Fold:
Amino acid sequence: MVVQVYSDAMLAFEDIKPGARLRGLDSAGIAEVVQVSRFGADALNLVFRVHGRVAERLVYRGEETSFELVEAGRAYAFDADGGLLRLASEAYRIRLAHLFDPYLAVSASQIEALPHQITAVYGEMLPRQPLRFLLADDPGAGKTIMAGLLVGTSLFPQRQAIDISATSSLRPMNCSHVN
Structure:
């Protein structure tokens, strides 16, 4: 490993950035700066790592003269795991999906809802507040699908609990459809 020491140039207070490696910040050895929080023009809160141990120190202007810059840091680094960035972006997109797609439950489910079910849920049930309903209809009209659309649309952003009551003969079927 090649270590460049910038001892001929004086370390400026503004040069302390994430990724910089400094000697003198911690007595245990060379510290790698992880995070820099500025408090005005004359104070920095440094989070740094030395031999795997993470520490934090408040540094005031003038103290940087006792530090030796071993390796300069970068203002921005683009060396993070791309897969994790994509995963985080997708999770955030899904979290906000209900804001852009009012029919999220219809588009996200594997069930193809019929027009009367969409009208009942999105046209009649959801606009009425508070959401307290007794869903009853003819046999085979798709009450389970309507309940699933209602639950998926109204509870997706809030992550609320819901109570579903069914007769004992219908519980296994309803639970499997709603899940």
Q: What stands out?
A: Confidence is low (pLDDT under 50) at residues 1-8. Residues 113 and 145 are 7 Å apart (CA to CA). The first strand starts at residue 21 and ends at 26.
